[in-house]
Amino acid sequence: MSLIPRIFRLAPLPLLAAAALWASPEAGAQATAESQGRAPIMLGWAERTRIFPGNLPVQAKLDTGANTSSLNVENYELVEHDGKTWARVKAVNRADASREYELEVVRFSKTKDHDGPLRLRPVVKLEICIANIRAPAELNLSKRRTFIYKLLLGRRFLAGKITVDPSRKFTIEPRCSKPRKRPRRPRPAVDRR
Description:
Blueprint: H1 3-10, H2 13-23, H3 25-35, E1 41-44, E2 46-52, E3 56-62, E4 69-81, E5 84-92, E6 98-104, E7 107-112, E8 118-130, E9 133-142, E10 151-153, H4 155-158, E11 162-165
Helix pairs in contact: 2-3
């Protein structure tokens, strides 16, 4: 009797699922998309997006060569609140529309420009709407003034949600619904006699 069939007979179900994902990376991407309730959608290498809060329209480059996503900011200032680091930022799109945010810094990322030195950039979280997907994204803050696309979406954001077709761009307008507010719990009736 072979060892492999015996292991699979005795292995718990989560271990079997992990083994199947390990055996096939495509199956792993498919399982990730299915667990989110939808298959990855095909988009072009450049798409229109919206950043929330604030509903700021920004054209984005979908870059499978970048790990982390990046957002153009005019300037940022790091401040401390209750022992945590926050960034005051002004996000700007191509049409010079902007929104100001004060966001908690979740980490710092090491980045290197084409021919520049290694830098530490603050990373913050914002929600991105692309096509019909609204999801949180970790964005490092950078000055992308000279770039056409003020938002770069990297693999961490794209994985399991979006497949990129390099021959297409601006395929679907962003149409995300507003986040649902939690319903209020009914208050117990108070006897006011």
